[in-house]
Amino acid sequence: MRAPPLYYLYVAATLLLAPFAAWATIRKLRKQGVSALRAHEKMGHASQPRMGGGQLIWFHAASVGESLSVLALITKMGEMLPRAQFLITSGTPTSAKLVADRMPPRTVHQFAPLDAHGPLSRFLKHWRPDAAVFVESELWPLMLRMTRERGTPMALVNARLSAKSRAAWARHAGLAAYIFEVFDLILTQNDEMAQAMLDMHAPADRVARGTNLKSLSAPLPTDPAVLAQIRAALKGRPVWVAASTHPGEEEIVLGAHETLRATHPDLALILVPRHPDRSAEVAALIRAAELSCATRSEDALPRNGEAVYLADTLGELGNWYAMTDVVFLGGSLHPIGGHNPFEVVQAEAVVLSGPHVTSFAETYADMQARGAAIRVADAAELARAVADVLDAPAARAQALQAADSVVQDQSNVLGGIASRLIHILNLERDSR
Q1: Which pLDDT score is estimated for 170?
Q2: Where in the chain is the domain with CATH 3.40.50.11720?
Q3: Which long-range contacts (CB under 8 A, 24 or more apart) does 197-200 make?
Q4: What contacts 104, CB < 8 A, 6 or more positions away?
Q5: CA 23 – CA 319 distance, rounded (Å)
Q6: How many of the other CB atoms lie within 10 Å of CB of 236?
């Protein structure tokens, strides 16, 4: 297909703006504690050698959620392709750190190059990917076209674009068709997005419904030493967790906890705000509720009778899920979209959630139908749901069994997606 004029206009703009974008991006990464060597990965200067041996499969994601969503897929493909090497690129220091902590075998991370000819040329010349998999909405025109022009098989997985992005692509039909034709396979999160991709001029024979990869994520890591320390401090007290909470939700959670402590005076709440930099704000809310509190970032442990443990650190969510049978997931009592319930059921806990879960609508619907997830609307319903899980062993066991069935089914789905990608991207020779 011939490139539309708008594409050439975009390429010309990148030539003019790339030096300024490079300066600003590298400066920002350096301020966030990234070394100069790694920050210059944005210019296509690799900080590691290309791995030898088998094929190199490149996964590109945007930030934390997208990066973590593909780790289980990389692991599964690595099992099926024992000689393959994997490269994952993303844009933020937080994603780089979390990926490094959970890196699958034979995988390296780099910061994604700027969408400009020079950085991309250096990146592609060094890494020479045998296949490329792009995640969700990372549709940089030059990156996609230059990768394709090398003859690299390409796929878009977990495809999800906002209504605003869809409208923008629909207005530029020629550019949309030119960009989407690079993909040999486009797997969307649901049927609605599959239709949206067709409306945005994606090739009809290459679009298929997949699933939300975030609902297939690998189990969160745990630290046995931390678990032992916290369990010793709690001395067998019952625990519930409220995780990934946002402004306006902590007050509801704390109200529910006050209600629960009237009938469960020894109950401990582990409260995990979505953004740890809100720690002081959340601590003030806990004090205002006249509840005692210990704070994780201050190296404090929950003392005897302490009502709340404020877990205001990154990368420890797996530890807190392992402490309980019941987890409330935030981002759901207000229209934020919800957070990943699959990570909770993998930790063998029941999921409680508010009504606003558009980001994981299909996953929640399935879990709720099976009895592995419960919806609540306010503090009173949240308190009742937590009490029901704590006080009814038979019902709790049934819910946990339902959660286990979700995990098993999703594992089968993950294997199917991995097999499909291996076939479409012509990677089968590496399995022999």
Answers
A1: 81
A2: 5-210
A3: 197/159, 199/166, 199/170, 200/161, 200/166, 200/169, 200/170, 200/176
A4: 71, 74, 75, 78, 86
A5: 39
A6: 8
Please report the beta strands in 184-238, taking only residues with DSSP state E, as ranges in sequence order: 185-188, 207-209
Is the predicted pLDDT of residue 432 greater than 60, yes or no? Answer: no
SS3 218: coil
Provide the pLDDT for residue 303.
83
Per-residue model confidence (pLDDT) at position 102: 85
Nearest to 184 by CA among 149, 156, 145: 156
CATH of 5-210, one of 3.40.50.11720, 1.20.1250.20, 3.20.20.70, 3.90.1640.30: 3.40.50.11720
CB 117 within 8 A of CB 46: no
Grouping H, G, I as helix, E, B as strand and the rest as coil, residue 338 is: coil
Residue 376 and residue 331: Cα distance in Å, rounded? Answer: 13
**What are 230-257's pLDDT values in tens digits?**
999 999 999 999 999 999 999 999 999 9
Please give the full DSSP string across 59-77, using - where no structure is assigned.
EE--SHHHHHHTHHHHHHH
Q: Provide the CB-side half-sphere exposure for 8 (13 A, CA).
A: 4
Distance CA 189, CA 362 (A): 9
Q: What is the CATH number of domain 224-410?
A: 3.40.50.2000
**How big is the CA angle at 431 (ends 425 and 432), to the nearest 5 degrees?**
130
Quote the DSSP letter at residue 50: P
Q: CATH 3.40.50.2000 residue ranges in the chain?
A: 224-410
Q: Measure CA 160 to chain center.
A: 13
CA 156 to chain centre: 16
Strand-strand pairing, 207-209 and 131-135: unpaired
Average pLDDT of the chain to the nearest whole number: 91
Among the ranges given (96-100, 221-225, 312-316, 341-345), the one the predictor scored with the smallest mean pLDDT: 96-100
Question: How far, in Å, CA of 409 to CA of 402, rounded?
Answer: 11
Q: What are phi and psi of 311, to 5 degrees?
A: -95, 85
Tokens representing 23? Answer: 């300066």
Q: pLDDT-based confidence at 46, cuts 50/70/90? A: very high
Kindly state the percentage of the chain with pLDDT values over 70: 99
State the Cα–Cα distance between residues 40 and 34, nearest whole angstrom.
10
- Dig out the tokens for 170 from the structure: 């629909």
372 to each of 326, 327, 352, 375, how far by Cα in Å? 10, 11, 9, 10
The pTM (predicted TM-score) of the whole model is 0.80
